[in-house]
Each structure stands twice: as C-alpha cells, then as structure tokens.
Amino acid sequence: MREISLADVPGLVGQELGISEWITVDQTMINQFADATLDHQFIHVDPERAAAESPFGGTIAHGFLTLSLLSAMNFGTVPKIREQTMGINYGFDRVRFMSPVKSGARVRGHFTLSECRFRGAGMLMTSYDVSVEVEGEKKPALTANWITIVQFDPKDRPEGV
Q1: Is the pLDDT reported for residue 77 higher than 90?
Q2: What's the rounded Cα separation, in Å, for the pair 37 and 5?
Q3: Nearest to 148, CA basis, from 97, 78, 63, 50
Q4: Beta-bridge partner residues of 91
Q5: Tens digits of per-residue pLDDT, 40-75?
Q6: How far apart are CA 84 and CA 122, in angstroms?
C-alpha cells in the first residue's frame, strides 16, 4: 500500500488516487445484506420473482450495499497517510444510484480527491469524488462525494496550514 505524508495531501487535490480491485456482488452477499438491514424486497432476494416481475432480469444489490462497499474498495486503494491515527466517515453529498448491480456482477471503485482542508489542531477533512463501476456497463452503479476526517497528532501538522 502506498503511503503519503499529511503535507502531500493538498497537492493531490484533483487527482485520481486509485481504482480498487474488483469485488463480486453475489446472491449470498445480497441476502446477508438483506438480513442485516431487514430489507427483503423481492428484487433483491427472490431470483425467480425478480426475473419474472422486474425489469432487471433477476435480482439486484441494494443501493446501500453498493455504497457500503466503498470502505472495502477504499482500503488498499487510496494512499495511507503516515501520520493518521484514525479515520472517520463524516458523510456523503450528492449520492446517486445510477444503474443496478445485478447479482453476480463485479464492481470496483474510483477515487478522486476533490478537496482537503485542515480543521482544528489535529484534523484534516477530505472529500473524494467516488464512482462505482460495474464491469461491462457504461453507466456507473453510483456516484457520490464522500467526506472523511483524518485525525492525527497535532504535533504532526504541517507548517503553514
């Protein structure tokens, strides 16, 4: 995994920082997510009914399942900040579910650093424009702006920021 310093982060704004490995979203994953979220809508968990009654030709992943995979996609893709002591999800702006992820499809994330700003003595707020590509499809499964907070020891704050 690549490592960078806090001082390097501002210079990366506007750059794609990485593309994740492919993740297969199979029916088992979809069913487990349905169980965890209590969302058992037939388009997710009933392949026969979804094939017969939906426009998708079979089951599809929950949009929130695809969104939740961003954490796994991010890990090992976006460079690790050496001084980071903890990372926190702050939220999302402009989440859009653009196209379905069919059961068995492979997805991967694209991460572009869109903004960063130092806050307080030991925090860096970062925003990433993210998209989740579906293998073989033209439209992404989702697009969003993901906001995170990098915490670090204040003694490690770069000078002049």
Answers
A1: yes
A2: 37
A3: 78
A4: 147
A5: 999 999 999 999 999 999 999 999 999 999 999 999
A6: 9
What Å distances lie between residue 82 and 36, 79, 115, CA to CA? 34, 9, 19
Q: In sequence order, what are the residues at sequence separation of 6 or more whose Cβ sits closer than 8 angstroms to the Cβ of residue 2?
A: 79, 80
pLDDT in tens, 102-133: 999 999 999 999 999 999 899 999 999 999 99
**Nearest CA-CA partner of 81 in 159, 161, 157:** 157
DSSP 104: T
Could you tell me the domains of the chain?
3-24+63-156 (3.10.129.10)
State the DSSP H helix or E strand holding residue 151, giving kind and residue range, or none if neither. strand 142-152
CA–CA dist 148, 132 (Å, integer)? 18
Reading the block at residue 20, the tokens are 């994740």
What is the rounded radius of gyration, in angstroms, for the C-alpha atoms of the chain?
Answer: 18
Per the CB < 8 A criterion, the answer to whether 13 and 116 are in contact is yes
